[in-house]
C-alpha cells in the first residue's frame, strides 16, 4: 500500500511540475484525458522504481561528493534520476506508442524540475496516508 501511495504522490508531483514549467517539462500522451492519466501514472511508476533501485547505488558511490558539497550533490543525483526516467520512457517499449517524459533545455532544467518535484513530493506526502504500524 505504501508503494501505491508513493507512486500516486509522485504522479501528482510530476503533473503539477508539468503545469509549473510547461515549456520545458512535458508528459507526452495520446491527447485524451484517460491517456494523460495513464501516461502520468506510468511515468510516475518508472520514476519511483528508478528512485528505489538506482538512486541508492548512485548515492552510495557518490558519498564523498555528498560530504564535500554538504548534501547539495543530491540535486545532481535527482536530476540524473529524472534524466534516466526520460530515457527509459522514451525507448518505445510498448508497441511504438509515443508516451513518456520529455525535458527540453538542458541540464539546469533537469535540476530545476527535480527540485520542484522533490519539494512537491514532500508537501503532498504530508497529506498522504501514513503506513500503520
Secondary-structure map with pairings?
Elements: H1 2-20, E1 25-28, H2 33-61, H3 63-68, H4 73-89, E2 100-103, H5 107-127
Antiparallel strand pairs: 1-2
**In percent, how helical is the residue content?**
55-70%
Number of helices: 5
The computed structural class is mainly alpha
Task: State the low-pLDDT regions, or none.
Answer: none
Hey, roughly how much beta strand do the residues contain?
A: 5-15%
The main sheet comes to: 2 strands, antiparallel
Alpha carbon gap, first and last residue: 13 Å
Order of helices and strands: HEHHHEH
Shape, please? globular
How many β-strand runs?
Answer: 2
Nearest-integer average pLDDT: 89
Strand order of the largest sheet: 1-2
Radius of gyration: 15 Å
Question: Can you describe this structure?
Answer:
This protein has 133 residues and is mostly helical. The protein has helices at 2-20, 33-61, 63-68, 73-89, 107-127, and strands at residues 25-28, 100-103. A two-stranded antiparallel sheet has the order 1-2. It is globular and about 45 Å long. The model has no long low-confidence stretch (mean pLDDT 89).
Provide a short characterization of the protein structure.
The protein is globular. With 133 residues, it is mainly alpha-helical.
Identify the notable features of this structure and list them briefly.
69% helix; 133 residues; two-stranded antiparallel ribbon; mainly alpha; globular
